[in-house]
Amino acid sequence: MGEMEELRKEMENLKDQITAARKTFQDSTLQEAAAGVTVVGRVQLKTRKTLRGHLAKIYAMHWGTDSTLCVSASQDGKLIVWDTITTNKVNAIPLKSSWVMTCAYAPSGNLVACGGLDNMCSIYNLKGKDGNVKVMRELAAHTGYLSCCRFLSDTEIITSSGDCTCVLWDIETGTQKTVFAGHQGDAMSLGVSPDFKFFISGACDFTAKLWDIREAECRQTFGGHESDINAIGFFPNGNAVITGSDDATCKLYDLRADQELLTYQDSSIMCGVTSLAPSKSGRLLLAGHDDFNVNIWDMLKAERVGVLAGHDNRVSCIGVSTDGMACCTGSWDSFLKIWN
Amino acid sequence: MSNNNASNNLIIAQRTVKQLRLEASIRRIKVSQAAAELRNFCLQNASRDPLLVGVPSSDNPFRPPKSCSLF
């Protein structure tokens, strides 16, 4: 077993190398860079709309790119497409499996997707000829639950799974194009870069990974969290990643410096982060927690500048619209709220 | 049986080492530069961030326009 021992030694050496390399580039901190910036004043958002209609816990929501429509998934077995301005339900899609954990809206607005404990990602065509919304494809191959999915286009979607992998699918053929393996725990969440070339995944191995979609490889791995990462997103310019964890903190990692820049934590916050979304400029970080609240952070100063308290149960999902005009929260209390 | 496990573990270890080599070799930039660019992006885009600067009710699609009838 000499070779195994050698490989283990080399693993440890390489990990030390990475730690050392990161340190040599740590000539400053984000605190220093933001020292001259004044903290954002108290942010007080009001509920402008309440979307009522689901009959059970809402697990996921995703804005359409038009900043008006959004899709939500509930364990009442329905996907609902909402017009957030009128609060009308544009589509109410009954699902084969009610154990849904994620949903996504295609950038084109033509398709929505969802999945969960059925281990599948189901694609629905909203613009079918006869006006009925039907299942277009069932993407089956994961051996664990579907935790998250995001469209690259009408022909490609990326999924993350409890089987520890992420997969890039060809929707037309229903086949796996690429399997991204590497996480040592359930992959819980994913986000696609603004240029669609990369995606990031957060997992129950407490790490976040950056993947090159076309080269089919993991480029970087970020640690530091002390528990499962439940939520992940790109900073608006694509150069940094934000994670939210069961350890009750959020962290900001810079991709080009290859390291953590800030942790968003407060001794009074003891509940895990379930979801997160940055505002359009990236200055505000909105994080949904198990304690029914959404905390709003000044991302540069790591100070809490607001709270959204309006739900009667866990906030399970959150999203800021593409034009930055509103934030939508979804909860186990079965309601979605639009805030600004 | 145990031979299979041993060779599997070896393959996994080899893959892990290959991956770590890749991650160790990436080009990095200084935190001072990365942090400055993040800060500048926030500041430059602040005026275009509705949740940050607030939305006047007349421009807010989620607020019904206040109508004033003069009859």
UniProtKB/TrEMBL annotation, chain A:
Pfam families attached here? Answer: WD40_Gbeta (PF25391)
Q: Which InterPro entries match?
A: G-protein_beta_1-5 (IPR016346), WD40/YVTN_repeat-like_dom_sf (IPR015943), WD40_G-protein_beta-like (IPR001632), WD40_PAC1 (IPR020472), WD40_repeat_CS (IPR019775), WD40_repeat_dom_sf (IPR036322), WD40_rpt (IPR001680)
**Cross-referenced SMART domains, in alphabetical order?**
WD40 (SM00320)
What is the top-level taxon of the source organism?
A: Eukaryota
Q: Where are the WD repeats?
A: 51-92, 139-179, 180-221, 222-263, 273-307, 308-340
Query: What UniProt keywords are attached to this protein's entry?
Result: Coiled coil, Repeat, Transducer, WD repeat
Instruction: Indicate the segments annotated as coiled coil, or none if absent.
Output: 1-31
The biological process GO terms on file are: signal transduction
The family this protein is said to belong to: Belongs to the WD repeat G protein beta family.
Name the chain's protein: Guanine nucleotide-binding protein G(I)/G(S)/G(T) subunit beta-3-like
TrEMBL record, chain B:
Which GO molecular function terms does the record list? G-protein beta-subunit binding
Q: Which GO terms describe its biological process?
A: G protein-coupled receptor signaling pathway
The record's Gene3D superfamilies line, in alphabetical order, gives:
Transducin (heterotrimeric G protein), gamma chain (4.10.260.10)
Q: Which UniProt keywords apply?
A: Cell membrane, Lipoprotein, Membrane, Methylation, Prenylation, Transducer
Cellular component (GO) terms are:
heterotrimeric G-protein complex
Principal subcellular localization: membrane
Membrane topology summary? Lipid-anchor
UniProt keyword Cell membrane present: yes
- Cross-referenced InterPro entries: G-protein_gamma, G-protein_gamma-like_dom, GGL_sf
Compartments annotated for it: namely:
Cell membrane
Q: Which residues form the G protein gamma domain?
A: 6-71
Q: Which PANTHER family match?
A: GUANINE NUCLEOTIDE-BINDING PROTEIN GAMMA SUBUNIT (PTHR13809)
Quaternary structure annotation from Swiss-Prot or TrEMBL: G proteins are composed of 3 units; alpha, beta and gamma.
Q: Which family does it belong to?
A: Belongs to the G protein gamma family.
Give a short account of what the protein does. Guanine nucleotide-binding proteins (G proteins) are involved as a modulator or transducer in various transmembrane signaling systems. The beta and gamma chains are required for the GTPase activity, for replacement of GDP by GTP, and for G protein-effector interaction.
Annotated protein name in UniProt: Guanine nucleotide-binding protein subunit gamma
Taxonomic lineage from the root: Eukaryota, Metazoa, Chordata, Craniata, Vertebrata
